[in-house]
Amino acid sequence: MIKETLKEAEVRMKGAIQALEEDLAGIRTGRASPALVERLQVEYYGSPTPLMQVASISIPEPRQILIRPFETNMIKPIERAILASDLGLTPNNDGKAIRLNLPPLNEQRRRDLAKVVHNRAEEAHVAVRNVRRDLIKDLREFEHEKMISEDDLKNGEEELQKLTDRFVEQVNVVKERKQKEIMEV
Which residues fall in a coiled-coil region (predicted)? Predict the structure, then answer.
């Protein structure tokens, strides 16, 4: 019973780390990356669709992203999605493709991005702690219903806390790595 609960906690906490890493991949450093735009929501026949499903995304140069829509009528909606996003980039379109030129980051923009990374990491910490809270509640219900003993409850809570500490540390490692990457000139 406790083993399954700890297994569930680990899976959910890994999910929080994975979500954080995917989220941070979209925060740009000095170089171009498809992850910057591939999750951008584009209006596709009335429904929001990730950009990577309506166009191919490539990096022809270190500071440029090339977006080739599968259908030419998608150029305008893709441009609108880019302009509406918080990327701060201006799309250049030649009728067949869209080019995004990434300007070098200045010191103030780097600091702002580092703050964004910090906030996203805080959200991941909260997600990990919420998993712990939910599963401690489950463990206490098991004990209340006499499915586990009081000692089992205590041991389960201790194991859950160790797991939580491990994943909070992983969030910190991911945050530090991304902040270092952003501040690198």
Answer: 139-166
pLDDT tens for residues 27-50?
A: 766 677 888 888 789 999 999 999
pLDDT tens digits for range 51-107: 999 999 999 988 899 999 999 899 999 999 998 887 778 899 998 999 998 887 788
Fold of the domain spanning 34-101:
Gyrase A; domain 2 (3.30.1360)
| Domains of the chain, residue spans | 2-25+106-183, 34-101
Contact between 162 and 6 under an 8 Å Cβ cutoff? The reply is no
Strands (E), 30-79: 41-44, 47-50, 55-61, 64-69
At the topology level, CATH places domain 2-25+106-183 in Topoisomerase I; Chain A, domain 4 (1.10.132)
